[in-house]
Structures are given as structure tokens and as C-alpha cells.
Amino acid sequence: MIDLKSIYRDVLDGKIKETLTADVINNINQRALEIYSKQSLDPEEIQDLDLILRLSNALYNSTSYDVLVLDDGMYDILLEKYKKINPSFQVGGATIKDQVNERIIKVNGKTKTVKRMNAFELYNPKEISDYHYTDAFMETTVNRNQPAYASNVKAKTNRLRDTAHEYEELVGTLDKCKFVLDSQAEDAGVYGDANAKIFERDFLGEHIHRGIIQPYQQLEMIGEIKYDGLSVEATCSDRIISARTRGDLDDNRATDLTDVLYGYRFPNHLSETDTIGVKFEAIITKGDLLRLSNETGKEYKNMRTAIAGILGASNARDFIDYVTLVPLATSRPNDFVNREAEIQFLNKYFATKQTLRYVKFFGNPTQLLYQINEFTKTAEKMRGFMNFAYDGVVVSYTDRNLIDFLGRVNHVNKYSIAIKFNPAVRYTRFRGYEYTVGQNGIVTPMIYFDPIEFNGTIHKKASGHSYERFKDLALHYNDILEVSYVNDVMPYVTKKICQENEENDKLYPMEKFIERCPYCGAYLQESDTGKSIRCPNLENCPGVTASRMSNMLSKLDFKNFSYESIVKLKIASLYDLLHVNIDQLHESGIVGLFADNFMEQIKILTEKPIKDSKIIGALGFSNIAQGKWAKILEQISLDDILNLSDNDLEYKLVKAKSIGRLTAKIILEERYRFKPDLILIQSMPNVIKTSNGKATIKVRFSGVRNKELANQLEDRMCDVSDGAVTKDTNYLVVPYEGYSSSKVDKANNYGVKIISIDEFANNLGKYIK
């Protein structure tokens, strides 16, 4: 056990360098992590927490460490934990003996004395008025005290079932960029990086290049805050009638949230008979997050995880008063003269606690760039002052002609783009590597470091990505790392260029990559290019098998089932998965609700209709995803894949469209490994088989659903769902002639035949031959 008392005493005596060795700092962070993870603390843990905070306070105020012993975010979280035990604890630190307010550094090989700077300069709120567009960030209160819904109204549907979107035009994502100006990307050294999208070059510049806009054309654009929550698409009047998550866009499948949000009231009256589709961002504000904690005892790490936790809970409706729905768009944008009028309508009728904040820009493309850059900088600077979480801004054209021309491609509105804020950066120390093995045998190094905090979440590791990057990083134990938070999701590690690392490299040897697989012990093989290392034991390596099964469960929509559970169960194939029983789960330590949920998901997989391309695409054929399997199965039957000779199958695969020799080679080599699973899939009655050489008849429903009829259609190998109407849909089934909906409108546009359900059911042989 680390002696924190002695460490603290020695540090206060000025013995910093000799006391705070690399191993001691590592041990302090490990102890901090242990305390952080405990729900309740014993007296020894409380004392250690007190000492860690006091040590951090003293070092923060009195030393010039490039990296503090404890990360700032980690410190803040531990401080809040301790204040619940000792509310009178003060942040100020004790004085360290013989500390002076200056330090010696090296510049170009020469020594230089500099004054010690505070770790942070406080941002003065009075300076806010010096920045442009601050009106968009003024705090608003809209019907804050109004109850979210009538508590006596009962839920309308079962949230656990999948459903289709009612307003497909409200569902989708946005193109994203990380820089407003080309010069910003150049300064960051990533202008030539294909992944570095730039508003100037890749949005405005691209449109000028294509002749869509002119270099000196006067244009109007609008900028909005990109709220960070969960997307919800709803049917609304003066309250919510039905609601859905964004869901799976390709399959037009979402989770039904109607039982959670039904009856959620809005401030102004919109006739119950006049319904409209509205896209919302469901968020929780800082104030409501604190209120939730105080009133219910439920605690979440940050606002983003809180909203996901609330809407995902079985009793989500009990906490709906803490949820804020920010209105983003309507299903009828053409009803408004421009985007600003639509936003004003949304804020009037559908904003509850927060409005959709926006500003307008006007000028030629050069003038727009300046305005949008100022707006983005202001939005990023104001981030810490706002009562809600947001991770960027959205910029859009307002001209209806431009909007219609650019349109929507693959669920993406091409007349808008999101400008994401640059990731936050933390500094920490490297503590070593661990290794994982993927389903293709590729070994990935995992970088472990002293814990750091991003947006309320503690991180202690990040992917090292590849053997090539491992060599580029050339890390030594105790190196200072610069960790950025990419897309507010994933920590990305680089080695900090600094004097301390130069000295550290002389103290510790460079890390070496492992020689044997950590799961099966096989000697690892380096690729010809030197970019990757792989385990050659693809057939029998437990790490390879567990990774493949983990990916399979994810692709088959299994939820809340960890990699560790797969290892415990020792399942290695789809066949194994479908033959798991409850006793096997219990023997593996998977019990209670987790076991019940897992068995229920297996039941769904064997009963709910599923496309053959989806389930085969989940098996783990190397680099052949669901979309590619759909093209393969349209031309070559599963029976042929199972039974043709290698020569005959290779001939058919190579001759088929959009398959290629590499894909053909993979199928030929790996079909024997997956043969038991392919035979099983062939026998599963719920698998919708792709019809070779003949287009599958696609039937869609709107406003009606008949399970018996759907079963009959599936028996006839039709593609049946209440999903989207597309150009290749054959029939749209409706409750009665003259029924209207957005799907009916699309069917009319595409020339899809619309049939009442009675006509269709009574004359099935006429339509499905």
C-alpha cells in the first residue's frame, strides 16, 4: 500500500523530485482510480482521498510540472466525491518549502529563467460582449415550470419493439468538418489529410467549383447550435402523439419511444387534428442533471450519458420531467418562407425549456467565411458557460432553390454541414501496453496511462491502432502523452514533444512489441509492408474467436453482452450461439436479468424475419459486409456457395457483377470454416432468402399492419416491412382507399401501386405470383 502521508510530508518539505518518481505517481493515480470506483469509502480510503487532494492542491499552486500528478478532470470528480463526506474541505493548497516563483528551462540548448505561470487563466465573463454573436447564447427560459406531460395518460405502444420512421426526411445525419478555414487546417498540419474536412474547401469551395454558387454572389446562411443529446422524430399536435429514435437508417428501423413521450405537452396550442412531424434533440440541462441527482439520487457522469440513461431505462417515463426536447426541424419546411421562419415556428410551438438558438449570415462567400468563423469561435468559447451540452454548430443555406438542388443523399442533407469543435486535450503519463486480437488475427496495442477525464468520463486507455503506429510513437515508460478527444467519443494519443520526455527516454528503454499471441501463444507474424502484426492461428485462437463472436452479436443487434461474457460462454459460432441454454449461462456466471435478456434475444433471432445477407454478413467472412453479401446472393445462391466445387464456384463469383477476385478468393477459402453456420441459416424458417435472378417483391405498409398477412407474404419470400417506400417497392398497403400519409405521397411520386389491405388480402394470388 502506498504511504501517502509520507509522500505528502516529503513534498511539503520540498523533496519533490526525489519523492515523486514515475512509479510513485503511477501508484497515486492507481489509488485515486480505486477510490473513484468505490460507491462507499472506508476510513482508510477517506484518509487517502483527503491526502491525494491536498497533495494535488499543493503541487497545483506551487510547482511548475508540465503534467500534474493528478489530471484536472480526475481531481474535480474526486473533489466532488470528497465534498459529500467533508463539505468544508477547501481547494487551496499548503505551501511547499523553499519554492520560488520562477524556473529554469532550456531554449535551443541554452538555459533561461522564466516566471512561473498559473496553470489556467480564468476567463472573464465580462469579456463576452467583445465577441460576435453572443445573443445566440443568452440564457432563455421557456415554460420552465410546466409539467412535461399529463401523468394520467397511459402509454400507447411497447417501447421494446422496433418500428419504422413516420417522417424519413427528418431522420439522418450531417456531413461534418473540423475546420472553418483552409488556413486553420494548414496550421494544424492536416490540410492534405483526406480525413480533414474543411468548410471553406469542402463545402463553399466545392459549390463554387461545381458552379452551384458564384464567388461574388450575395447569399444568406444560418448558423445553429449543434446540441449534444439523442435524436427523436415525433408526430406532434399540441403534444406528442408518437415518437421514435433515429435508429438504423439503412433498414429504416427505430426504437419506439411513444410509451415514454406520449402526451409530452408544448407551450402553445396547435390543433389536435393538425399534426406535424418534428425532429427534436433530447437533452438534459446542467440544472436538471443536478435536480435529478438531488431529487432522485440518480447520478450520471455527464449530460450526454444522462439522457441516454434516462431514455433507455425501463421506467423512463418517471423521469421525463428532467428531459428537454429542443425542436430542430419540421416535416413541412416548404410551408415556411425560409429557414428562419421555420425556426421561429418551432420555438413558438415546440420549445419547452430551451429554444433552438441561431444566427443569420449574409454576404459573398468570403464575407460568409469570416462571419461563420467568428460564430464558431464564439460558440466554442461559450461552451463552458451554457446550461446544456453542445459539440459544434450547424451551418445551412436558406435559399429554397439551393436546398432543393443540393437535396438529400443517403440520409444526409447536402445543403447543411456540421462544424465540430476541436477535441479537448489532456496530458498524462504512459504506463504500458496491453494487446487485443481481432477477428482477422490483427494484433492491436492498447495504450494505458494515468487516468484522465473528458466530459465527466474517466479514461485510462486508448487504442494504439496498429503496429505501424506503435513504432511511430516509440514510447518509454513515464513518457508524457497528449490525449485528444476525437468526436467527443474516443481518446487519441500522441507523444508530447518536450524536454521532460527527452530526459525520460534516457531513463527507460523503449517499449517492445510482443512476440507471441497473448491468447494462444502462437508466434506473431509481421506483414510484408511492416504495418501490422497478426496471429496466424485463425482457426483456434480464443482471442480471434471471441472478437469475431463479439462483432457477430453487435451486427445481429444483441445488446448489453460483453466480450468477457463471450469468453466465459466459449461460444465460437452461430450454431453455438443458437444452442445456448439457460443452464450454460448460469454456469458461466451470467444470471438474472442478463441471462433472461440474452435468451430473449436468441429467441428473437430465431423467430423475427431477417435477411439472409444480414445474418451471413455477421458471421465474420473477412472484409465482406452485409451490403456486399446482398449483391452476392442476388446472383449466386447459398446452395451454390455451399455445394459447388472450388472451380465452378470461383468461375461464377468472378463472372458476377461487383464481386471481384479478392472477394471470390475469401469466400472460397473461408466457406468451409463457416459451413455448419451456413447450413443452419439455410434451414432457419425466419430467414428471408434473396431470390437469384428474380427481383424480390417488396411490400410496405402504412397506417395498418396484419401479422397473418405479413406471415403469408414472408412464406412467399416477399420483402415485407412497415419501412420506407423506395423506387423499387412493388406495393404499398393502406387501411382504405383515399388514405393519406407521407408514404402514400412517396408511393405516388415513385409510381408504386397503392392497395387497400382488404383488396390485397382477398386477392393475394393476383399480386404475388
Structure explained in plain terms:
By secondary structure, the protein is of the alpha+beta class. The protein has 5 domains: 4-96, no CATH class; 162-420, D-amino Acid Aminotransferase, Chain A, domain 1, CATH 3.30.470; 426-534, OB fold (Dihydrolipoamide Acetyltransferase, E2P) (Beta Barrel), CATH 2.40.50.140; 542-688, no CATH class; 698-767, BRCT domain (Rossmann fold, 3-Layer(aba) Sandwich). It has a 5-stranded mixed sheet, sandwiched between helices. Strand 6 (230-236) and strand 7 (240-245) form a beta hairpin. Helix 1 (4-12) packs parallel to helix 4 (43-62). The radius of gyration is 30 Å and the shape is globular.
- Any guess at the CATH architecture of the largest domain? 2-Layer Sandwich
Task: Calculate Rg over CA atoms.
Answer: 30 Å
Q: How many structural domains can be distinguished in the coordinates?
A: 5
The shape, in one word, is globular
Strand residue content: 15-25%
The average pLDDT is 81
Q: Uncertain segments of ≥5 residues (pLDDT<50)?
A: 99-107, 112-132, 143-160
Q: What name does CATH use for the topology of the largest domain? A: D-amino Acid Aminotransferase, Chain A, domain 1
Please give the largest β-sheet.
5 strands, mixed
Q: In what order do the strands lie side by side in the largest sheet?
A: 4-15-12-5-11
Helix content: 25-40%
Strand tally, please?
28
Q: How would you classify the helix and strand content by structural class?
A: alpha+beta
How widely separated are the two ends?
77 Å
Q: Count of helices? A: 30
Instruction: Give the CATH level 1 class of the largest domain.
Output: Alpha Beta
The CATH superfamily of the largest domain is DNA ligase/mRNA capping enzyme
